[in-house]
Write a structure and sequence with these properties.
Layout: H1 25-29, H2 48-51, H3 66-72, H4 82-101
């Protein structure tokens, strides 16, 4: 039996959503979303960015625009503040940019 495995081009964990800060806006604002993230992902390196080097093809993903973010944050207004959503959006924009710059997504 031959099994083909295709790794996900986007690696992440709950840290992208600032879960560890609860609703403490001050901690969220000081969060370094550009830092090297580690995780127990059971493939490749514990550093999530390093695992992107193992992606051998390009993926087509929609651009992150206001319409996409409306879908991402739909219903979240009752759970997290607009400021918290903006912090998450900034981090997602940064990570999306890294995937574009690395040629992983088109």
């Amino acid at each position: 039996m031959i099994i083909t495995v295709t790794p996900s081009p986007i690696f992440d964990n709950g840290r992208a959503l600032t879960y560890e800060y609860g609703d403490n806006t001050q901690l969220m604002q000081n969060w370094d979303y550009k830092s090297k993230v580690t995780a127990n992902n059971f493939v490749g390196s514990i550093y999530l960015d390093n695992n992107l080097k193992n992606v051998s093809r390009q993926y087509k993903l929609p651009r992150l625009n206001d319409d996409v973010y409306k879908k991402i944050f739909y219903g979240m207004g009752r759970v997290i503040s607009k400021e918290h959503q903006e912090i998450i959006r900034t981090a997602l924009d940064y990570r999306y940019g890294k995937l574009l710059d690395g040629g992983i997504i088109i």
